[in-house]
Structure formats: C-alpha cells, structure tokens
C-alpha cells in the first residue's frame, strides 16, 4: 500500500471513528444540557442559561445534519451531496448553525457581563427571546446565499460563483467564523469574570452570587474551549489559500490535516455539556438528580410489573384450590392489594403484595368482609389523580392515602381516606411528598409520612 493510499485510508477512518464519536457524545450532551437548564430553577430563571439552552439546540442540529452528512460522504464513501438539493441544504444548515451558535455564545457572554453591571435591566428573558428570534431570522436570510451559489454540477458539492468564493475565503470564514465572534466572546467573558470576582465585596443575595459566579465560570471555560478548537482550523484555512500543489501525496496529506481540524472544530459543538459538568457543582448535582430520578422511575415500573405478576399468580393458585378471596381496595391503578383472612388474628405473615392470615385449626380461607369469589371492581375515583403516593390502613377500617405526584415535576400535600361512601378529602400534610412511606402508628390511630424526592421530604 502506497503512502497516498495510506493517507486516504487514514482520512476515511478519522471521519468514521472520530466523527461518529463527536456526533453521538455531542447529541447526548446537548440533550442533557437542555434537560438540566430547563428543570433547574436556579438556571431556568437566568437569561444566560436561556442562551446556552438555545446554543445546545442549534448544536444538536449541526451535529445531526451537517456532521452526519460529512461522515457518510467522507467516511463511508456514500456521498449524498452529489445531489444538488442535498448539497444546498447541507451547506445552508451548516452555515446557519455555525453563525447562530457562535452568536448565541457571544450573547450569553454579553448578558452575563450585563447581569453583573449597572446595565442589569437589559438582562431579562423577554429581551433574550427577542435577540434569539432576530438572530435566527437574520442569519437565516444571510445563509440563503448558500442555496444560490452552492451546487453539485459535476457530482462535487462546490461554490459555482468565483466572486462568492472569494467572499467566503476572504471574509466569511476568517472574519464571521473566526475573528469577530472569538474577539467578542473573549472580551465579554473576561469582563464578566472580573465583575464576578468583585461581587463578593457587594451586598448581594448569596444565592444570586453563587449562581452568577458559576454561570460566569461556565461561559468563560466554554469560550476558551471554543477558541482552542476554532483557531487551528481558521489558521490552517488562511494558510492553505496561498498553497497550491499537484502532487497526489501532498494533496492527500493536506486532506488528512484538513479533516482532523474540521472534526476538532465540530467538537466545539459537542463539548459544552462535559465542560459544564466539570466546572459547575450545581450543574453536576442536577445531572445526578435527573439520572437518579430516571432510575427511580424505571425501578418503580419494574416493581409494579412484578407486583402485578405476583397478584395474577396468587389468584390462579387460590382459585384452582377453590379458595375464596376478595379485593378490599385498589390504592393504585398499577398495584392491587389483596387481603386473605380466616378471622384468626394470629400468625400474620407479610408477602409480596399480600397480607395473609393462617390458622392451624381451620384450613378454609375466607375474606374478611364477604365470602364471594375473587373479582376486580372499578370503584369511585380519587378526588385528585396522583401516583407514587403513600397509603396506610387506619384503626376504623378506612384506607388513607397521602401525597404523591400530580405531574412529572409536582408533588401534592393532599390527603384522602376511603370508606364505604368513596374517597373523602381530609386536612392536607404540611409539606408535599412523593415516593415516600406512610406508616400507621399508635395502634393505627396516627400516621407518619417520611421520605420524599421533594426538598421538604
């Protein structure tokens, strides 16, 4: 294998392995960024985090479309850019995402500087929303030039107008992609960092102080990362404008270097999540909460399915032996609780999903309330729909449920009891609870609620 063939092979492998790794890790990180910035109140109320959320959305689009098409074309030799409309759309999205992403990062650094200066009034969500919208529209109109002057006339996606090619080489790439956004980012992130260091000497709420300092460090390190990954590509591109060669080996070597630098440039769209996780303690805490909450829900679903399976198995076992059992209450739509009793209060035994009572003198199994065969009844619904609540049996025979989730992110304080007339509202708890335990104490005359995924649990 000649040197020329080795270089071409190395270029293809770099696109496949390095490119796919950047795309997958970047998309996953971008999704986590969006979840964390939108679920954590500390960040959700700040305009800087709003800009960073918008950056994550744009970066995901850039990785899924522009980088994926590049990996297909240059890595797997499936050049779908040979089609005219694919060439135009891919270049349009790449140009738009690049300009919008860098502009949003610039706006984030400017906003962070304003939020810690005398011009704090300009740092608000309404103004940020307008900037996001206007910026997207402006760069969208600007990028329409790519739809006009890019095409694939010979099966190669290229610029078909010499004047536009000169404009791209002399202004768009070195200035709009490089010098202008990098200068703006670095300047305002350093000013914001300076302001954050002087905030400690002012009388400012400690929560706001901690939040602003964390956001400032996050944006500063993000800007440093973007600068490191962008500058090599811009410098090499400017250098290559004045270099011409007809040697196959040199061309292959230049293509390999260019591919590596382009992929490093794409890593600037994929690395923000990992940067924020390293430099922000509050960001890491929210990340662990999101992951643990997802694991808890998966565990709850698994235990619910297991309880249902056990219930069905017990039903068939007892029914086959002509035992008579009866459902006394349905406290959750996914878990049935069956009580089997013969009237003897001794030898209680707790099993998965069941409370059974046995006697050495009477082998018959009877219900505590009737002698009917087992069946499922649809009873009166709760006054408030909820999940992940706690329940307990009271001394008077009534069933109490307390707390629970009424939306994926909201718990309730509400409490209800079940009697022969249905569910009745009773005084609520002091705090909201979900995924907690409710235990009857003092001979079932009092109830203790403990534990929760909410802050007051």
Automatic annotation (TrEMBL):
Membrane topology value: Multi-pass membrane protein
Positions of the G-protein coupled receptors family 1 profile domain: 29-276
InterPro entries: Gal_Oxidase_central_sf (IPR037293), GPCR_Rhodpsn_7TM (IPR017452), Kelch-typ_b-propeller (IPR015915)
UniProt keyword annotation of DNA damage present: no
Record has Ion transport as a keyword: no
Main location: membrane
Gene3D superfamilies with a match to the protein in the record: Galactose oxidase/kelch, beta-propeller, Rhodopsin 7-helix transmembrane proteins
Highest taxon of the lineage: Eukaryota
Molecular functions per Gene Ontology: G protein-coupled receptor activity
Bilayer-crossing regions: 16-37, 49-69, 89-110, 131-150, 175-194, 215-236, 256-276
Subcellular location: Membrane
The entry's keywords: G-protein coupled receptor, Membrane, Receptor, Transducer, Transmembrane, Transmembrane helix
GO cellular component, one term: plasma membrane
Protein name (record): G-protein coupled receptors family 1 profile domain-containing protein
Species: Adineta steineri
